[in-house]
Amino acid sequence: xxxxxxxxxxxxxxxxxNLLDIQGANPFRVxxxxxxxxxxxxxxxxxxxxVDRDHxxxxxxxxGRDLAEKIAEIVHSxxxxxxxxxxxxxxxxxxSLMKIPSLGPKRVRVLYxxxxxxxxxxxxxxxxxxxxxxxxxxxEKSERHILEEIRKLRLRGAExxxxxxxxxxxxxxxxxxxxxxxxxxxxxxxxxxRKRETVGDLDILVACSKSSxxxxxxxxxxxxxxxxxxxxxxxxxxxxxxxQVDVRVVPEISYGAALVYFTGSKSHSIKMRGMAVKSGLKIxxxxxxxxxRRIAGRTEEEVYRAVGLxxxxxxxxxxRGEIEAALKGRLPKLVxxxxxxxxxxxxxxxxxxxxxxxxxxxxxxxxxYEYLAITDHSRHLxxxxxxxxERLMQQIRExxxxxxxxxxxxxxxxxxxxxxxxxxxxxxxxxxRHLDLRVCSIHHRFGLSREKQTERLIRAMDNPYFNILGxxxxxxxxxxxxxxxxxxxxxxxxxxxxxxxxxxxQPERLDADDTLCRQAKEMGLKFAxxxxxxxxxxxxxxxxxVSQARRGWIEADDVINTRPLKELKRLLVR
DNA sequence: GCCGTTTTCGGCCCGACTGTTTTCAGTCG
Length: 574
Hints:
The chain is α/β, with parallel strands linked by helices. It folds into four domains: 6-155, Orthogonal Bundle (DNA polymerase, domain 1), CATH 1.10.150.110; 161-249, Beta Polymerase, domain 2 (2-Layer Sandwich), CATH 3.30.460; 258-326, DNA polymerase, thumb domain (Beta Polymerase, domain 3, 2-Layer Sandwich), CATH 3.30.210.10; 337-571, TIM Barrel (Alpha-Beta Barrel). A hairpin with a 2-residue loop joins strand 9 (287-290) and strand 10. The longest helix has 17 residues, at 6-22. It is globular and about 80 Å long. It binds one DNA strand through residues 26-33, 35-36, 61-67, 101-107, 135-139, 141-142, 190, 201, 203, 229-231, 233-234, 236, 246, 248, 261-262, 264, 266, 269-270, 273-274, 277-278, 282-286.
């Protein structure tokens, strides 16, 4: 099999772009490759499968005849002749040099041509030997800077921070800035505001009076590890945690324009600018202009209205069709945390959770839920003390007793049952039938081939007690790739059988992710957004799953746990 | 290399900061 993944094609195009860039190629050609890489990485349908359907690839934005042919070459032969050509002229390892801040394509090229520097080790050697200061465009200072950056690069892997971790930083930093005299508004924009599952840095916008010392105070924030740059309207620091934070001061009259600009995504704002140009306008971070005259900019709504669009939620701003949808008045009304009426995945002390049934029920009630499903693990997951038939029956009886006492919250009798390698569920039907719902998940044999893994899931869904497919891909952000499955087949099978897809809210899971949510939604599937809580505190993870769902264009109506209990129960009977 | 209500050529987002520098190129977001 070994079908080529979209991300693999995207990586090859990114490499081509970087090598072309270093070789000094036409910058627009470079951009075309970068743009194509992004489009492919964001596309949920498999491009490998689109190759053989007539001209289908060329319907993707940024993919023309030439790139479509190159994709076909990659899919059919496994490599790209253009790349081999480029690699003859320029060693691909040069790309790694661009990880050093201040080294871009031009300077990397100089390093290679004048000193033969091919990788970070060469770079370090050349810098230590004092050779770099001799080069045009470099100095003794930049040489020291390079050595320092190499040291730092080795210290911290250049890993993106999980959204939930970034939020911890935001929760302290934003009030600190808000507290400075003269500060009127503080907003974290960028990928944080778009609720991407990970963020590379924080972009913070501040509106303040002219005399406000906010920049001075920012660079003296106790957590600052290093000041990268410092100016009156823009400063960049790196916190001790390694997170880069960028603060920009913008006038209040431009706040909306700046929000649009710095929330991005880059390609969303570029598309907006393009639309503006067509109607004789210019958009920048200060406002919308007709000639010299500013016609909008105080609020985001104003900026969107100026180019004939309704307000677009930050989570949608990825240039994945939201602008076209907005033009047609077809933007989704995204699900909100307040729409959620209950949680369909949680654990207790019986397996690997930290709290009792009562404890979980009380906590769920405090969150305003109507119901909470207790889904402890099944016997196969021995490390988590998974429940066998007998212990599960005992838990069922306990829940029945408890429900008689509980007011304002109902516990659902449920299980997170393992999907075994052959597609059987880990507990017999005679016990599963006593439950209100079953979340079915894979917890072992992640490495099966795509064919086998897909069959395993579909066979499991053949069981009439299969309700919700837990953490769709099993990936762990920054730690583990998901298992290889044919999403289209799995979604089609789930739809046919009346099964639902979980959006798992654990910050390192957020699985299914945004693009898969969107794909599944387009195939007509419904979702359960669940916390997978292992403690009373982590019931609150729900909002992370809601964010991911919103990025996937999911509406309240697409989510089964926005329904009242009675309606939910009907949906759970296949 | 893509794209087209400015359509097959000639455009392609734009401003801040740094320092390679003394008027501007490179990098970055």
